[in-house]
Design a protein that fits this description.
This protein is α/β, with parallel strands linked by helices. 64% of the residues lie in helices and 6% in strands. It has a 4-stranded mixed β-sheet with strand order 2-1-3-4, sandwiched between helices. Strand 3 and strand 4 form a beta hairpin.
Length: 390
Amino acid sequence: MFWNIYRKYILRAVRSREMIGWTLLFPILLSTLFYFSLGSLDEDMEFQSIPAAVVENRAMETEGYLKQMLEEISKGGEPLLDLCRVSSEEEADTLLKNDEICGYIFMEGRDPRLYVKENGIYQTILKNLLDSYIQTKDAVITIAGKDPVSALKLAKKATGGERDGEDLTPSREFIRDLELTGKKPSATVNYYYALLAMICLYGGFHGLVVVENLQANLSPQGARNTLSPGSRWKLFLASYLGALTVQFLCVAVSFFYMGFVLKVNFGTSPCAALGTILAGSMTGISFGSVVALPPKWKGGMKSGVLVGVSMICCFFAGLMIDGISYIVKTNMPILAAVNPAARIADAFYCLYYYEGYTRYFQNIGMLLGMAVIFGGICVIATRRVQYESI
């Protein structure tokens, strides 16, 4: 009887257009829309060399340290400035009006001036760069009156002309870069991870059907199962495993579609990613079974509660706004810990970003714990239910 119920549930779920539509076709369509709307977001957020110009007039020729500094930060494979040199201010103005540069530096007397068309990040960087040079120049002039040798060293260090020796520059570095992982931070992957979390929670629709098949006052199937000689927990387990099989396969198809067709990065461990899908599907189905328990709720109301709670969880997991999950975790860590969608998305993110599996297994443990709690509530609530008449 166990395998018969298991097989029949799978056939019923596969034939259900609503079930397949929400758990298979809808996520594929939505992920495709994500691909076309968010595809260039990571490229747009990458830092690019700042297009700028410098007017090489007579005053600039006498400012040797400024020219040397600009040359140093315009060298290398990924220079800070994409610098072009012009011979007149009119030529620089033309480039600025045509949006070919973000700003240009013009020497007026002994002071460098920065001219920009509008405010922005790149313009702010140029201004801070020039302000830093002016402050260092003033410091050199002040020190030169007392110690000319130290002033010369400071000027060389500030412009990159000296790499060794005693560090006298005020911008002395006390930190160094450490690479925690080989993966680049991405602003798009979390949307796909939260979408997979939503699909896992939509497994709650299966949970609604599983409980309906166990309650005689909700469906004809429930009445027949109530009269059957099989134990209630075996009936629940057979239907639950059937629901889990269908749900896991549907989410797995979406996962492989995102990974191989849309080229979403899920890390280097596909088995662990499939384990996340399995744990998330178990949690979603178990949650749906709990939502189905109130006998006075109609089917539409239960579906509405399931969708509403799932969407709220997915919102706080970052499906609509990137970074909202971090804000919730920082300010309300308990709420973030019990949010199954956030745990699913964070498990995927751990596989993508972190080298170790400690945080990943913590998320999986929380998901399995929630699945066990929800499933236990459902079994306890339905195992000894009796009816006056069927």
